[in-house]
């Protein structure tokens, strides 16, 4: 197959966007709407809520820690077979879960099996998307990630209907069939050969080169800190509102407002990321700082209007930072190393995500309300955005009026000239 | 409570009590001394002569109690001219108390509820032409089953639960119904039905080895001291084929989708290859004619020139 010098920026790339849209819906939308089954399982197995919620936690943990596996396999075999295999695994996990007779059974089937399936799908798909786009990368990523938000709106009532009609066993069986569509999403990921691919070598070589890449390590650290603060409102906003004596219905309405502004933020930021000149890392800094500020202001707002304004601000800015966070990576490490890079980033930043919510809960238990948790979350985001300042090109405003070339191409030139020299010497 | 009605003269038992002809109406004095260990419940209703709709109050009562019902009637007319009656259902009651302060008339009826016969609706009525009515409805506490039908599968085990939040029934019984006939569930007959009665406030009916014939309505009946309550729980039993059909349908759809996507790709690649091959062919031809020095190749060149000249 002919090697391309530049990503196609369109054409089949839009089918990849479609695939990424559906697969982020089928992975994260399902995870977010799992609460419907949670309620049924607590009643069916007569277990404590904490023990049943481990099912989703194990699934998320396996998905995040397994990301490097997915990306390593994609580097070697291309994203298509990996994602299709992941789809089969995810669907099998749900299928086995519908026959569960104990909670352990569910930990293994949904948590471990489906979790591994999800690990093999999310990272390779987003990395593949980054390879297909360069000028419109942020927009493509933003559009693809709207799948998460939109599917939460659709899946929650759908799962509720499934459970009322077929009980949780039949419901899980049909969710398994739904998850099988991940295989179709995988089929859409046509392999793409870019010119820098042979230069960057196999997965082992890529990993070692990444671990020595200063900006990449700083970026990973920044994202980990950002991740620690990012998820806190998702988990604790509802409880914070209840502390302020909000009615459940109004609180749920506020959360919907956050979700909608999150969606708008993703697409707007995606479009903005492509049109604004200069490195995307600057935009990431902007959105991260704004998110941190809005989080820190949450405890100060007491009136409903102030909270509503902050909720819209938080939703918009936190949604805005997601597509640019993914777009920064190819600019740092190049599209050749994107699979491995993304896998590693996902794995490390998940530590932040896992720590964030319990930390916030702990602070709340110690201080009595969520003021400390929100302020700390905002602080994590601000520190993370500070670290982003150290990334190359972020601070110099004069030199780079246009986007920096994917540094991968620079690496190609140096490596190609080296190999040529080597051949000549022979 | 007592301070609120301190201006009421609680008439002492030296009023001659007429023995009521209806055995369901308790004789006040004896009851008051006999059941002084019961709790006292006081309820009141306010009425004016302009009230459009009758005022009603629902009272949930679980155990036998002494009851004190008070109706206050505000009027511009002379309070002494207002006609006051108390009724239980349609029966006239006697031995009620009256007091007037300013233009508010207080009517009070005291009695004791010990069994289900004393439960019901008690009304105070004021006036003759435009009768104003206040009613107290006494009911036993409600029991709760499940609002939505319980969905289960064949050969599964399920538990039907009925709860009473604020009462402890003396007895719980379960019935299954086919249509309108209620059939009590026989626990001794087999292992299929087990009734768990460990908790007083709830009852659990465990049914094992479900079959499609077990589908239908189940009734739990609570026998309380002051009456009976009944609640329905709906059970649906499905076979595994029910969700299996849509499952297989969706799996087939996914397989077809994947096939379409992959075939489309090989088709477009073949087309591309065809075009590429065609281009290569032309390129090879050009190279051949470029490289040619020999005579053999003059012929194609000539042919080419000929075609051009044409």
Identify the CATH homologous superfamily of the domain at 36-139 in chain B.
Immunoglobulins
Please tally the helical runs of chain A, counting DSSP H or I stretches of 4 or more residues: 19
pLDDT averaged over residues of chain B: 79
Biggest sheet statistics of chain A: none
Strand content of chain A: under 5%
Uncertain spans of chain A, ≥5 residues at pLDDT below 50? 398-426
Largest sheet of chain B, if any?
Answer: 5 strands, mixed
Query: Kindly, what is the distance between the CA atoms of the first and last residues of chain A, rounded to a whole number of angstroms?
Result: 29 Å
Quick summary:
The complex is a heterodimer of chains A (426) and B (310). Chain A has helices at residues 13-32, 35-45, 49-65, 67-77, 79-97, 103-119, 122-132, 137-179, 181-187, 197-200, 203-211, 214-230, 232-243, 248-275, 280-297, 304-333, 338-367, 371-388, 407-425. Chain A is mainly α.
Which secondary structure elements does this structure contain, and how are they paired or packed?
The complex is a heterodimer of chains A (426) and B (310).
Chain A: H1 13-32, H2 35-45, H3 49-65, H4 67-77, H5 79-97, H6 103-119, H7 122-132, H8 137-179, H9 181-187, H10 197-200, H11 203-211, H12 214-230, H13 232-243, H14 248-275, H15 280-297, H16 304-333, H17 338-367, H18 371-388, H19 407-425
Helix pairs in contact in A: 1-7, 1-8, 1-9, 2-8, 3-6, 4-5, 4-7, 4-17, 5-6, 5-8, 5-9, 7-17, 8-14, 8-16, 12-16, 12-17, 12-18, 13-14, 14-16, 15-16, 15-18, 17-18
Chain B: H1 28-34, E1 40-48, E2 55-60, E3 65-74, E4 84-88, E5 91-93, E6 97-101, E7 104-113, E8 121-126, E9 132-139, E10 150-153, E11 158-163, E12 171-178, E13 181-184, E14 193-196, E15 202-207, E16 216-224, E17 227-238, H2 241-291, H3 298-309
Parallel strand pairs in B: 1-3, 2-9, 10-17
Antiparallel strand pairs in B: 3-7, 4-5, 4-8, 6-7, 8-9, 11-15, 12-13, 12-16, 14-15, 16-17
